[in-house]
Amino acid sequence: SSSPDDEKPRPSMLRHLTSKIKATGPIPVAEYMREVLTNPVTGYYVRNNMLGPEGDFITSPEISQIFGELLGVWIVSEWMGAGGPRQLQLVELGPGKGSLACDVLRVFSQLRSMLGQVSVSLHLVEVSPALSRLQAHNLTGTRSQEADAEDEPVYRRGETAAGLPVSWYRRLDDVPPGFSIFLAHEFFDALPVHKFQVKTEKGWREVMVDIDPEKPDQLRFVITPSPSLADERRDHVEVCAEGGVIVQQLARRIVEHGGAALIADYGHDGTKTDTFRGFKGHQLHDVLASPGSADLTADVDFSYLRRMAGEGVACLGPVTQRTFLKNMGIDTRMQVLLRNCSDPSSRKQLISSYDMLTNPAKMGERFHFFSLLHHSRLAKPKRTEGLKLEKKSPAPLPVGGFTELSFS
Description:
Layout: H1 11-24, E1 27-28, H2 29-38, H3 44-47, H4 60-63, H5 65-81, E2 87-93, H6 99-110, H7 112-115, E3 119-125, H8 129-140, E4 144-146, E5 154-159, E6 165-169, E7 180-185, E8 194-200, E9 203-212, E10 215-223, E11 236-239, H9 241-257, E12 259-268, E13 277-280, E14 283-285, E15 295-297, E16 300-301, H10 302-309, E17 313-320, H11 321-327, H12 330-339, H13 344-358, H14 360-364, E18 367-374
Parallel strand pairs: 2-3, 2-7, 3-6, 7-12, 12-16
Antiparallel strand pairs: 1-9, 4-5, 5-6, 8-9, 8-11, 9-10, 12-18, 13-14, 13-15, 17-18
Helix pairs in contact: 5-6, 9-10, 12-13
């Protein structure tokens, strides 16, 4: 149950923001998001466990284990497509409660005979101390401990019941190099965005956050007086510079060390305009009200991520979550589970979770999947010389989840 205090503005965060604005002037929306979500003292992600029925939002891994299982199959498929390297780093950005990683590792254990002697390790990039403790509990039980020094790149280490090593980092930069499959589920939508809009005939202006002069304890949006953007057809655009940097990091790692990245999020392919919004108690919430008490998010612009990834990697998607999961065989998996399930309430729950994940009116078309791959993954295998009967060169292995689409 919630107390009346939950509905009051967070004076510490609001005071911090108003002091900052008084000292330096209006701040960009990106800076506002960064402070509200990840401020080391009062940030929303730093203080809260915001996931699940009693939090502010529920993610697909919490709805059904099938989701994580299919992503686990995708990872094993891409590891095989890369020739089965001897080492496999599973790197998850923003791992929530650790539910997705748990489901993926369960698939790994079920496919142990296929993975053979490969050395598997789990690497979690997480800024929230509260969530990292929850992840550690769910993934390692009591088999983890925090680093002695605060400035160590790995701030927590542990191992799963099966002995698989798990490490926690605050930044992607700190994850060691090596063949890696990167997962980012509902990670990019929480990264800070700069907002721009056409305000006058003179062009683009950046949207800023300022103190309302008539209500000093409230914030408002204002427009910068000087031009700030060009070459854009939409009348309102959001730019996630931090997301662009992270995609460039992922692309560079994939080029240099091999692997793949799978990004799943709310998003669009360069078509939407104003998507900045807040969530509190599973309801939409004013983004400027009670800063620090609600989640802030903006839809991911996959066309921007594709441009930032560059020519060094192949980009697949975005495809809708419904398309991706169906291409991964969710219907077949559901039939197996229903056939082995005699309990009516469990069957009802299975059907309900399937509907939530795939129904176009629910998560099926609101979420999209996007992937970065090493170009060698899509290269045609070399033809064997001397075979007179072979007329066509063999095709590369299809990429799970994206097999219906061509890549860019």
